[in-house]
Each structure stands twice: as C-alpha cells, then as structure tokens.
Design a protein that fits this description.
The protein has about 375 residues and is mainly α. It has a single domain, classed as Amino acid/polyamine transporter I (Up-down Bundle), CATH 1.20.1740. Helix content is about 80%, strand content about 0%. The protein has 15 helices and no strands. The chain has helices at about 5-15, 20-30, 35-60, 65-75, 75-110, 120-135, 140-165, 180-190, 195-205, 215-240, 250-255, 255-290, 295-310, 315-345, 360-375.
C-alpha cells in the first residue's frame, strides 16, 4: 500500500471520526444496548454502501463536482435545489458541532494554565486556526490529517488502557423507545463521511491511483465503525447511566481528571481533522458547483458555522441528532437517486462498478425515511 493510499485513507477517517464519536456513548446509554447494536450494524452498513455509491458517481462523471453539481447533472433543477439545502444543513451543522465541542475540550486541556471567562473564546480561537488551514487548501490539509490521526489513535489507545480495568457489566436499559429517534440521528451523523469522497476521488485521480478508491472507502468506513463501537461500549461500560453528552466528563469520578484531559486532547485532534475536511469540502462546493470565486467561497464556508454558534446554537446532542436524522437522511436518499441516474447517464467508465439489486436501494431509502420521520414527529 502506497503513501498516497494512506493519505487518502487518513482523509476519510478524519472526515468520519469527528464530533459524532462523542455522541455515540450517550445515545447508546439512553436508547439501550439492543438498539445500539442494531444501529451500529444497520446504519454502519447503509452508510458504507452510500460511500461506495458516491465514489462510483464521482468516477462515472468527468470534471470536478460536489453533491450539488452531481445533483444538477443527473436530477436537474429540483435536484440541485434539494442538494443545496442538504449541503448547507449538513455541513453547517457539522462544523457548528465541532465549534461546540472545541470550546469544552480546549478548556479542559488548558484551564490549569489559561483560563477564559467563557469557553466561547476557545471555540473562536479554534475557528481561526481551522480557517487558516482551509484557506491553504487540500494539500496542506491532507498532510495535517495524517499527523492528526496518528496522534488521535495514540491518545485513544492510552485512554482504552486506563478505562478497560474499570469496565463493569453494562448497567443500562436493554431497550428504551424514548431514546430511539435522537439515537438514529446521532448514529447517522457519526457514520457519514460523504463529504470526503469527492476530495478522495480528486486526490487519487490527480495521482493516477483512482482505481483504489473503493479500497480506501471500504477500509476507512469499516475501520471507523469498529472504532465507534469500541469507544461507545468502553465509555458506557465505565460510566453506565451516568454517561454524559460529551462522553468524557462522566469519566472523571472513575478515572480522574488527568485521563479526561487526555481524552479531551484526542477529542481536539478528532474534531480538528473533520473540521478541515468538511470546511474544505464546503469551500470547494461553492467554487465548483456555484461558480463562486475562491476567497468569497472560503469566507462563506468558514463564517457560516461561526455565525450560528454566536447566535446561540450550542446544544451538542440536539444539533447532531437533528442534522443527522433529517438532513443526513435526505443526503443519503439523494445519493441513491443520483447513483441510479449516473449508472445510465455517466460520461466515463468508472474504476469500479457496483451491482446492487433494486430492492436493496429501495430498502436503504425506506430506512432513512423512517428514521427521519420518527425524529420529526417525536
């Protein structure tokens, strides 16, 4: 496996393992063990297929586009309109969630030496640093992703070593229907890494290794899912029903502040990685799909989550639950529709070609629609 492969794999993992990983333990503790296991396998499988669908769409189409561009090509004006709504809803919500967590995590790490009256200051400083990397573009982000992910896995490995001896039998309900709607949204939000796929296709195309895109997607999606599951059941095994929304603060009574500080450090690495990938994706979508010049596209992409944050949208679980359950489900259904059209209308031969029965595509859309409906009408 080449250096290019690992850089691309790091980009996908970085886009997938973001804020969502911290929401998994809380919703598993609230919805129950049985729904948690079902959601891991069901939605993990659905999202893996969606990632592969999107990869094939990218490889069937000449030129560089993002979701909005592909929707316009294959679905027309109504597709572009829906994709535009989904794009801004999903990406703005995701970037907003990173700002919410960043303030808390930076405060945990640096509060012994630097204390601000509000974690808002840390969130703004995080935004400034992330915006700088997004301004510089893909090449700098790809290298930064690799180093961030190495640090991320090292930190989480140490956290596992300290937490495992304190694990007990899972003291949570087997099933709690009240927690199902928000759990669906959080799980879908956490698993989705669709925004990284066009970046990967472009990156691998430029380096003449596009035939390996499907391998990157499979390894990245499965690897991220396994890490999500291990992290979730580890945290729930230690914290039980006292599991907190950010997953980490509930560990303090058992593991002590030092270990939670380490967890916050790994959290900073995780959300920084995803913030860069998704911010760059939004910037490039504005450039390629809407024809907006580079600097205005950068300004819009980076300022949108900051504006929402300063307006007061700072409830982490609610943000990722709604974004994942509604906009994430719409994004997934849109990918299926574009995939069907691209199979017939694509203007180039893709490096891989998925043979998917129609009933499987229908089932995927049904699952996404049902999850979104239960969240809306809950």
């Amino acid at each position: 496996m080449s250096k290019t492969f690992f850089l691309a794999l790091s980009t996908l993992i970085g886009a997938t393992i973001g804020a969502g990983i911290f929401g998994f333990p809380y919703v598993v503790a609230k919805s129950g063990l049985v729904p948690g296991i079902i959601y891991f396998f069901l939605l993990g499988g659905v999202v893996l297929l969606l990632h592969l669908f999107f990869g094939e769409i990218c490889l069937r189409t000449s030129g560089k586009y993002r979701l909005v561009g592909y929707a316009k090509i294959y679905l027309g004006k109504w597709g572009k309109l829906l994709a535009t709504f989904v794009l801004f809803f999903v990406l703005a919500g995701a970037l907003l969630s990173y700002l919410i967590l960043a303030g808390s995590f930076f405060d945990i790490v640096f509060s012994p030496w630097i204390h601000f009256p509000s974690t808002i200051v840390w969130s703004v400083l995080f935004w400034i640093a992330g915006s700088f990397f997004i301004l510089k573009g893909r090449q700098l982000i790809t290298v930064a992703e690799l180093f961030m992910n190495v640090g991320f896995f090292a930190a989480i490995g140490v956290l596992f070593l300290f937490a495992i001896p304190h694990m007990q039998s899972l003291q949570i309900p087997s099933f709690d229907i009240a927690g199902l709607p928000i759990a669906f949204g959080v799980f879908l939000f956490g698993f989705l890494g669709l925004e990284a796929i066009p970046e990967l296709a472009s990156f691998l195309k430029d380096t003449k290794e596009k035939m390996r895109l499907h391998s990157v997607i499979i390894w990245g999606s499965v690897g991220s899912g396994l890490l999500f599951a291990l992290f979730s059941f580890l945290i729930v095994g230690v914290s039980g029903t006292d599991t907190t929304e950010d997953a980490l603060s509930g560990l303090v009574p058992v593991l002590g502040r030092e270990i939670v500080l380490l967890g916050a450090l790994f959290g900073i690495l995780a959300i920084s990685s995803s913030f860069l990938v998704l911010g760059n994706y939004l910037k490039n979508s504005l450039r390629h799909d809407f024809g907006i010049p580079d600097m205005p596209a950068f300004f819009i992409a980076c300022s949108l989550p900051l504006i929402l944050f300063l307006m007061g949208f700072r409830q982490f679980i609610e943000v990722i639950g709604v974004v994942g359950g509604i906009a994430g489900a719409a994004e997934g259904a849109l990918i299926v529709l574009i995939f069907l059209k691209a199979k017939k209308l694509g203007d180039r031969t893709p490096e891989y070609d998925m043979k998917i029965p129609s009933f499987v595509l229908f089932l995927i859309v049904l699952i996404l629609a049902a999850g979104a409906a239960q969240l809306i009408f809950d």
